[in-house]
Write a structure and sequence with these properties.
Elements lengths: L2 H18 L6 E5 L9 E3 L1 E6 L2 E10 L5 E3 L1 E5 L2 E5 L11 E2 L5 E6 L5 E9 L10 E7 L11 E7 H4 L1 E2 L5 E4 L9 E6 L6 E11 L6 H25 L1
Antiparallel strand pairs: 1-16, 2-6, 3-4, 4-5, 4-9, 6-7, 8-16, 9-15, 10-14, 10-16, 11-12, 11-15, 13-14
Helix pairs in contact: 1-3
Length: 236
């Protein structure tokens, strides 16, 4: 192999090495259902693991000025709900607005997770008002004001969601390009209806190339340029 071909081979190897160091983005789904209608759990928080990646769910009640009060979560076959004082057996498996307004917070491992889909269950089609939902992203575990929340989706679940059969709906959150550490789910003064949170799907935002990756790309470009110049000089 002559020197010019050696330069081209080295440049190609550097580019291949850079590509191999940048893995494709993969989706991660966390399922919150107990998997059985006979199993019910309650706790102040739940940790879920999917493919070695942890997500923590907490929740409680909030006031209009976003004063958060931690509460108890209930996990059932339909997913997660917030069980506030005075809630009955229908309200506990839901994020609802009977009594105080309730919220749920999903904490992701890092601050660069792109929300993709939320699946909710136990959505009642019998209520004329429809079940409303507010989904927001944040970098702060306790946003001080509405300005600290990015509203990702808002409206009546049956209007903005895709029916998955029965009382289950999928909500598409993939239109944004900003990563978050926290996803907040609200039910704010909505005629006493609610929803269970069955699953959440996120995608780790593509990382910016490391400095050594950029250096590798620069080396490849330099080697390629040298090879071209040497070839042109030999054929001139």
């Amino acid at each position: 192999m002559n020197f010019t071909k050696s330069l081209l081979a080295a440049a190609a190897a550097a580019v291949i090495g850079l590509s191999a160091a940048t893995p494709a983005k993969a989706l991660t789904t966390w399922d919150f259902s107990t998997g059985s209608i006979f199993t019910i759990n309650s706790a102040s928080s739940f940790n879920f693991n999917s493919g070695g990646i942890n997500l923590t769910a907490t929740g409680g009640t909030f006031a209009g000025n976003l004063t958060f009060t931690p509460g108890t979560l209930l996990q059932a076959f339909t997913g997660l709900g917030v069980c506030s004082p005075g809630d009955g057996f229908i309200e506990c498996p839901q994020v609802d607005s009977i009594g105080p307004d309730e919220y749920m917070r999903l904490e992701l491992p890092t601050s660069n997770w792109l929300p993709v889909e939320l699946v909710v269950d136990f959505v009642s089609e019998l209520l004329v008002s429809g079940d409303d939902i507010i989904v927001a992203g944040a970098q702060d575990a306790a946003p001080a004001s509405a300005g600290d929340l990015d509203i990702l989706l808002e409206g009546k679940i049956m209007d903005i969601g895709t029916s998955l059969g029965g009382l289950r709906y999928g909500l598409d959150l993939s239109s944004g390009s900003i990563g978050y550490k926290y996803i907040f789910l609200f039910n704010d003064s909505d005629n006493n209806d609610g929803y269970s949170v069955r699953s959440f799907t996120g995608q780790l935002e593509q990382a910016v190339p490391e400095p050594n990756g950029l250096a590798t790309f620069g080396l490849a470009a330099t080697l390629f340029a040298l090879a071209v110049r040497r070839h042109c000089a030999r054929t001139a």
